[in-house]
Amino acid sequence: MDFSNNAVQNRKNTLYVVLSCLFITNAIIAEFGGVKIFSAEQMLGLKPAHLHLFGSVLDFNMSVGVLIWPFVFILSDIMNEFFGKSGVRRISYITAIMIAYGFMVILAWTKMPAAEFWLQLNGQDSQGRPFDVNFAYSTIFRQGLGIIIGSLTAFLVSQFVDVYSFHYFRKITGHRYLWLRATGSTVISQLIDSFLILIIAFYFFGNWSIGQVLKVGLVQYCYKVLLAIGLTPLVYLAHFIIDRYLGKEVSVQMVEETNENW
C-alpha cells in the first residue's frame, strides 16, 4: 500500500487508539466485575476437585475477572510489538488512573442515601423473599482498600514485567517466534500478577493464610497460562490484520523502531 506520510500517521494513531480502548475497557471490566468468585467445576458440570494442597482443600474457584485478564496481556503484547515499551507504559498509567478514579466515584455512590421508592420497588427477590437492594449494590461495587491497592499494584508491576520480558525475548529471537515472546512474557508477568494482588489484598490487608493465597493464586495462574497459550493464534491474527491495515512495509518499520529504541 502506498500512503502519504499523513495517512500513515493517521493509521498509526487510529491503531493505537483502538488498541488502547480495548485494553482499558477489558482492564476496567475485570477490576469492577471481579468481585464474584465462580466455580469452574460447577460451570463444567463436574464435582468439586477437593485436592489437598498447601495444608487445605483446593477447588477450582476463581474471580470472574480472571477470565478476561489474558486478553489484557495479549493486547499489551500487540501494543508492545508495534509501539514499544513507551506506548505500553503510557496506556498502563492511564488505565491505572482510570481504575482508581472509577473506584473513588463508585465508593461515593455507595455512600449516597437510597430513594425510598427504589428500595420498595426492589424490596423482594423473584421468589418474594425480603431483599435489601441498597446493601447488595454497596456490597458488590464497594471494594476494600486492600483490594484497590493490591489490584493497582499488581496491574502496574505485572505490566512492566511483561514489557521488559517481551523485549528480552524479541532481542533473542528477532522477528521470529512471535508466539515465544507473546506467551513467554505473559507466563512471567502473570506469575507476579496472580499472587501479588492476593498477597497485598488478602494476606497483608485481610485474614487469609499464606496457604490460601498460594492455593487460589495457583489456580488463577494455571488458568491464565493455559488460556494465554490457547489464545496465541489471536496474536498472529492481530499481527496479520495490522500488517494489512498499515501495509507490510510500515508494519515492519514500526517493529524495527521499537527494537532500536529498546
Summary?
With 262 residues, the protein is mainly alpha-helical.
Describe the structure.
By secondary structure, the chain is mainly α. The protein has one domain (5-100, 146-260): Orthogonal Bundle (Arp2/3 complex 21 kDa subunit ARPC3). It is 74% helix and 5% strand. It has helices spanning 5-33, 40-43, 69-110, 116-121, 133-141, 145-173, 178-204, 210-230, 232-246, 248-260, and strands at residues 37-39, 51-53, 56-58, 61-63. The chain has a two-stranded antiparallel sheet with strand order 1-4. Strands 2-3 form a two-stranded antiparallel ribbon.
Produce the secondary structure layout.
Blueprint (H helix, E strand, L loop, with lengths): L4 H29 L3 E3 H4 L7 E3 L2 E3 L2 E3 L5 H42 L5 H6 L11 H9 L3 H29 L4 H27 L5 H21 L1 H15 L1 H13 L2
Antiparallel strand pairs: 1-4, 2-3
Helix pairs in contact: 1-3, 3-6, 3-7, 3-8, 3-9, 3-10, 6-7, 7-8, 7-9, 9-10
